[in-house]
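Suppose a colleague, Dr. K., hands you the sequence of a protein chain of 297 amino acids and asks what its three-dimensional shape might be. Before reaching for any lab equipment, you can write down a predicted structure in token form. Begin with the sequence itself:
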Amino acid sequence: MKKFFNAIRGMIVFILLVINMLVSVSTIYLFAIVYSIMPVKKLRLYFYQKMQNINYYWTGINKFILNTFTSTQWVLQGKDKLSPDQWYLLTANHRAWTDIIVVYKMLYNQLPPFKFFLKKELIWQIPFAGIGCWCLDFPFLIRHTKEAIRKHPELKNKDIETTRKACDKFKLSPCTIINFAEGTRFTPEKHSKQNSPYQQLLKPKSAGIGLVLEEMKNHIHELVDVTIKYSDTHPTFWHLISGQIKKITVAYRIVPVSSDLIGNYYEDREFRKHIQNWLNHLWEEKEKILNGLNDLN
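The predicted structure, expressed as tokens, is then:
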């Protein structure tokens, strides 16, 4: 009986989330058309900012749906003051596909609109939402293998150029740039293959953070370090929308971006070592936070 009830609840939540997405993305399309044909620069900027704020409405409605129709206990831990009127870089551990939804929901209305880097294939794999993300200036990157970059070094420069162009647009209005430093979702197999020094985390990669901090050095002065803990070992999107995840805890803290974290990431080898060591230390602290969250669950 419980499984049947969860299935019904999951279908209801899924339908409501899809409707919300369709309405939100359709509105983004409308604003994008007006923005693209508007000849007056100030009005273009106005419509651009309004288009970015659709994120708020989409997230707020999603939050209402999840709070109303699921029985998951949502816990937010963090006392540092956040502002929707300034720029941030946000990094988090990557446990499940639902991480984006969780971060959006838990930090709703406390941060400016979210931006994150996407694989270029997603614009066609999820065409309706993918094109919506493109309209919102979410940067799409092509993931090249190390072997391909060794054969064609110019491929690395293409993603660097894409990142720089994206950051130029990020500067137009306050936003939160999300970076999952592990680069992929945690699994025991990946953890073992990496021989990760952390018990519950994969090794962090510093390239994305290093480049964004360099390009946004006059705008981003604080990093939001987010740690996500699910009560389930293998959380899925279905588990979330059907209310099968008992508890989700999000802990956040502000980490100041000091001057030593700004540098030429791709040309300065010593700087790369420095920021990677800094990120490794951040991950050591994140592991301690996760252990503390384990004690609470």
